[in-house]
Amino acid sequence: MSDLNARFEKAAEDVKKLAERPDNDTLLKLYALYKQGSEGDVSGPKPGFFDFVGTAKYEAWAKLKGTKAEDAQQKYVDLVKKLEG
User: Fold this and answer.
1) CA-to-CA dists, residue 53 to 43, 70, 71, angstroms
2) Mean pLDDT for back-to-back runs of 10 residues, the chain (85 residues)
3) Residues 47, 59: Cα–Cα separation, whole Å
4) SS3 for 80?
């Protein structure tokens, strides 16, 4: 496992232990960066119109289309560090 992968996985654990819950925009950013870093470009059908949360998550992830997994992982690690203070 590369150093970046190890830091990415650690950040994924650390984010669950934050003192304060991030705002919704930050949560969407974390979700999108994590998905892009772990799975790559968005896949599957877009959730239905009335699935507001699912649609927001899908769209946030879709905005990162084409971003390399390593870049998304690094941005995720950096954002978690920033949230930790």
Assistant:
1) 17, 26, 25
2) 92 95 97 98 94 97 97 98 94
3) 10
4) helix
